[in-house]
Structure formats: C-alpha cells, structure tokens
Specification:
Arc Repressor Mutant, subunit A, about 150 residues, alpha+beta, 3-stranded antiparallel sheet, 2 domains, 5-stranded mixed β-barrel, elongated, OB fold (Dihydrolipoamide Acetyltransferase, E2P)
Length: about 150
C-alpha cells in the first residue's frame, strides 16, 4: 500500500546531518522496529521502539534529534535530546510535578520504570539522574517515601 510519504529520501550521506541536530518530524508509519518518521518533510528516519515513551498517531508532528546516519545511509532519530540536555529538560518536569502535588511525591529511586515512563515520559535512568541533579542544586530532598520540594 502506498502512502503519501513515498517521495521521502531513504538514504543520505553521512555528513547530511550533524549528531543531535534538531529536526521537525511527522510520524507516518509504525513498524516492529519503531516509528517511521518524515524528517524536515524531505527524508525518512526511524525512532526505535525502545526509545518511544508515549503514544503517537500517524500525522503527529514532533521535534526530534538525529542520532546518526548508518553505513547504509538510513537515519536514526531520537525524540529526546542528548543525555545532558534531556536530564536538564526533565528538571522542570519534576519540579512542576512536585508543585502540582503539594511539594511531596512518592516518585523516587524505588519507583518502577513503568510508572516513571507513564508520568514523566523518560527512562528510569534519566529520572534518577535528574533527581540527583535537583538534589545537588538544593531544590529537592530525597527521602525513603520519595522526593520533596525545598523552597
């Protein structure tokens, strides 16, 4: 079956994009490997399913980041920026969550990866790095019950 994305270029030169370059995406297909996306309305790329933390619809527009161009010229894409920026962008999500629940949350080191993914759309590893960063900045306290906002 043909879709309206048949015009997209599937193979590019390795220097076409820089690593972690921000691009505009449109989700156009779902495969066993992950989401097929149109990149800047010109190229096709893939977001691997183990990096998808939310539900997406065909036609949905997103921001994405080039993670690399493979030897065969196909483009790998992430929906999250590189780790350092991703952890920092998670800071505000956690602080907003704490403010919305009155300053104390049961989320913490012992929370399940599934619960963290559902609430914050990030991996447990990124979440733990983010709460560690907020702790070092003196913005939160980590307790046996979870995390607490310090103001």
């Amino acid at each position: 079956m043909k879709n309206n994305y048949d015009y997209l270029i599937e193979h590019v030169d390795a220097d076409e994009f820089s690593r972690w370059e921000e691009v505009d995406l449109v989700v156009y297909a779902f495969t066993d490997l992950g989401l097929k996306v149109a990149i800047n309305d010109e190229y096709t790329g893939l977001v691997y399913s183990n990096q998808v933390y939310d539900q997406y619809q065909e036609g949905q527009k997103l921001k994405g980041y080039i993670t690399g161009v493979r030897e065969d010229g196909r483009i790998d894409v992430s929906l999250q920026p590189d780790k350092g920026r991703h952890v920092h962008s998670t800071f505000s999500q956690i602080l907003d969550h704490l403010k919305s629940v009155g300053g104390k949350s049961a989320f913490g080191d012992k929370s399940s990866p599934e619960d963290i993914k559902r609430e914050f759309q990030v991996s447990k590893k990124v979440f733990k790095q983010a709460i560690g960063g907020l702790y070092k900045q003196g913005k939160i306290k980590i307790t046996d019950q979870g995390i607490e906002l310090l103001e």
